[in-house]
């Protein structure tokens, strides 16, 4: 059996996620062997004005520059993407995106493998997460058909910064439990929605402890499709979603649903397990960054696109705002 035949046989035993990672790795090898051909190819359109009169315009730090004859703007292939103004090439960014989507690769592991500092890996990962969050806002996840809505809770985490003197609780070590039993203000609420039959998933954080009716409406505004039938755990606030969307809210506690055999939240509970598994690996997520990770979970869980397509969209999507290191620490933070 040839090497090619052995690789083909082994690839059939891989999961869809592992196959996507292998394809992405092969593509990176092809790009590297081509001598960075993608860097030298002339873009068809200007990222600033959309004009097609683009010419080569020298080099900057070894990278090809281009000039738009319509607007006079000077740019590079990476202009307008999360790679703009970065000293690292696309191959390094591709590896960082792959580690982020994987969900089980620590920042230190990424930094060591890619030969960068912890801070550089941190900023790179959060620019990727912010890009995913912006992608979610530009094209909100839609929950339709038969869906399940519920919330899950994670402990408040202040990792990465000095513990405030005026905090309402004593500091705790990683792995310690909450000081109060049940759902308290130490618990950060993640409101979630999942379509049945392998559909979309959505997660967002707006509050601590149990969500109010107003917070539930804000969380799912624009995310419920017309005609959706959504099952919940009976929390009364979910009933108010019928005020903002042409949908039907059903409680799994109703005897009619139990008799019909549809009274369950198995899909959304599985999503919760997925989230908690990754939180356990991260050893918590700093509360101010929680919605960035919620966007990651929403994108990766039941992703309709392969990881390679998701990674390509993250790297090459032109954005009206390019995130800087300052943005990582000061923009779109969760304050609750």
Estimated radius of gyration: 23 Å
Based on secondary structure, the structural category is: alpha/beta
Number of helices: 12
In which order are the strands of the major sheet placed?
A: 6-5-4-7-8
The first-level CATH class of one domain is given as Alpha Beta
Could you please say which CATH topology of one domain applies here? Nucleotidyltransferase, domain 5
Assess the beta-strand content as a share of residues: 5-15%
Tell me the overall shape: globular
What does this structure look like?
The structure is a single chain. About 40% of the residues lie in helices and about 15% in strands. With about 325 residues, it is an alpha/beta fold. It has a domain at about 140-305: Ribonuclease H-like superfamily/Ribonuclease H (Nucleotidyltransferase, domain 5, 2-Layer Sandwich), CATH 3.30.420.10. The strands form two sheets. Strands 6-5-4-7-8 form a five-stranded mixed β-sheet. A three-stranded antiparallel β-sheet has the order 1-2-3, with no helix packed on it. Helix 5 crosses helix 6 (about 120-140) and helix 6 crosses helix 10 (about 290-300). The termini are far apart.
